[in-house]
């Protein structure tokens, strides 16, 4: 087993990672009767995608791992405007630390790795993914 999720009331849950004991609280979003004071379950899908891309880059490009420290991503989850309620798109923008330079080969390697991460491979193909690697 990976986790335990408990409904705590007021449209909130508490998810516990069984191996480490770390927790994540969720809240329904404001556009769906919640307070929006925590990640919503659908927020976590986009957030998981960004985290998976970064983690997979670090695993598979070990020689570039030091250049990945302090990379920041911004994630936007887009909900469909027509029923059924579901995620229709995820936008991710990477922000690379100042001072790090990447060769064309390193950029291609990191992009290819990101696009092959397990979360991306698990997202339904109807969800439009836009990733701006923001190379400068």
Annotation keywords:
GMP Synthetase, Chain A, domain 3; single chain; alpha+beta; globular; 30% helix; 2 domains; three-stranded antiparallel beta sheet; 6 strands; 136 residues
Question: What is the compact description of this entry?
Answer:
The chain is of the alpha+beta class and 136 residues long. The chain has helices at residues 41-60, 65-68, 104-115, 118-122; strands at residues 3-9, 12-17, 23-27, 72-79, 87-95, 128-132.
Please specify the SSE layout and strand pairing.
Blueprint: E1 3-9, E2 12-17, E3 23-27, H1 41-60, H2 65-68, E4 72-79, E5 87-95, H3 104-115, H4 118-122, E6 128-132
Parallel strand pairs: 5-6
Antiparallel strand pairs: 1-2, 2-3, 4-5
Helix pairs in contact: 1-3
Task: Assign the CATH architecture of the largest domain.
Answer: 2-Layer Sandwich
Q: Trace the largest sheet across and list its strands.
A: 1-2-3
Tell me the name of the CATH homologous superfamily of the largest domain. K homology (KH) domain
Topology-level CATH name of the largest domain: GMP Synthetase, Chain A, domain 3
Low-confidence stretches: none
Tell me the helix content: 25-40%
Class based on secondary structure composition and strand pairing: alpha+beta
Strand content: 25-35%
**Number of DSSP-assigned strands:** 6
C-alpha-based Rg, rounded: 17 Å
Sheet with the most strands? 3 strands, antiparallel
What is the CATH level 1 assignment of the largest domain?
Alpha Beta
**What series of H and E elements makes up the topology?**
EEEHHEEHHE
Number of helices: 4
* Total of domains: 2
The gross shape turns out to be globular
Could you tell me how far the N terminus lies from the C terminus, measured between alpha carbons in angstroms? 42 Å
